[in-house]
Design goal:
Elements (H helix, E strand, L loop, with lengths): L1 E6 L7 H11 L3 E5 L11 H4 L4 E5 L7 E5 L4 E5 L11 H4 L5 E6 L2 E7 L9 H20 L6 E6 L12 H4 L7 H11 L4 E2 L1 H4 L25 E5 L1 H4 L2 E6 L15 E5 L14
Parallel strand pairs: 1-2, 7-8
Antiparallel strand pairs: 1-12, 2-4, 3-4, 5-6, 6-7, 8-10, 9-10, 11-12
């Protein structure tokens, strides 16, 4: 099964790039972040006419997440309310559309767009830490169902120095602060593994390049788009790559897709590892 995650930075601006990606890669599931559109205005038709199923959770101009799947989407859960129905904090967090999940061929896929945080000591940074702490609660509730779990999306966090092109300059700043890293690690709770690092240990692999200062042309990026898998999925992972060439599109997103290939169901051996 091919599963991809991509912060598309406006689905309506880049719908043709999404269609081209679907045609080229033919993922079983594409998870999008920062769709920036209300559900009623999401460009469904050109995707559905290709036979894909859609799960969308968006808002005007900001945030927004979506699932584009070859498989039927079962038990779609939108927002923090999807898991924490009795938690009064859910309404506060669900004002921003940042999380959607579904069962897809027996796998629970949780697609997240973690807040950026703006700057250390800002209100947005405080919100980011609170959101990550709520993600911990969300995942604890989800794991009670003992479903194979794939957590993926734009985390806006580089967990290690090797995930930043210039760690001496940026380490301990926004997206690399100790508090952010600890909050994400707490949410993962030693139950989910970064599948990209199963296949690639070295630095120099980025998924995001700032639009400013020629970051793409200089290949000065960060790895902040992640795919985390539970044990039964990580044991059947065949490959994980960053589809870097998407960042070289005309009017591109500032992120590139990340793609994992999982032998799923494990008894079926029909897929070969996807190589970029």
């Amino acid at each position: 099964m091919l599963i991809a995650t991509w912060n598309v930075n406006s689905i309506r601006t880049r719908i043709n790039q999404v269609i081209s990606f679907l045609d080229e890669i033919e993922p079983d599931l594409l998870c999008l972040q920062e769709t920036k559109v209300e559900d009623k205005l999401f460009p469904k038709e050109c995707i559905e006419e290709k036979g894909y199923h859609l799960g969308i959770y968006g808002q005007k101009a900001y945030n927004g997440v979506a699932l584009i799947s070859k498989f039927p989407l079962e038990d779609i859960r939108k927002g923090m309310h999807g898991e924490l129905l009795s938690d009064q904090n859910c309404s506060y967090f669900d004002e921003q559309k940042r999380i959607i999940s579904s069962l897809i061929d027996g796998i629970r896929v949780v697609n997240v767009y973690v807040p950026n945080g703006a700057t250390i000591n800002s209100e947005k940074y405080t919100y980011k830490i609170k959101w990550l702490n709520q993600l911990y609660n969300y995942l604890k509730e989800q794991q009670k169902r003992a479903e194979p779990l794939c957590l993926l999306g734009d985390f806006n966090i580089a967990l290690e120095e090797r995930d930043i092109h210039n760690p001496d300059k940026f380490n301990k700043g926004i997206m690399a602060s100790q508090e952010e890293r600890e909050a994400l690690e707490k949410a993962l709770d030693n139950k989910l593994e970064d599948v990209f690092r199963l296949f690639e240990q070295k630095s120099g692999h980025w998924s995001w390049w700032d639009y400013r200062s020629g970051a793409w042309q200089r290949d000065q990026g960060w790895r902040i788009d992640h795919i985390y898998l539970s044990t039964e999925l990580i044991n059947n992972a065949k490959s994980c790559v960053i589809h870097k060439k998407s960042r070289d599109n005309i009017q591109p997103s500032d992120h590139a897709p990340v793609i994992v290939n999982i032998n799923w169901p494990p008894s079926e051996l029909s897929y070969e590892p996807f190589m970029e």
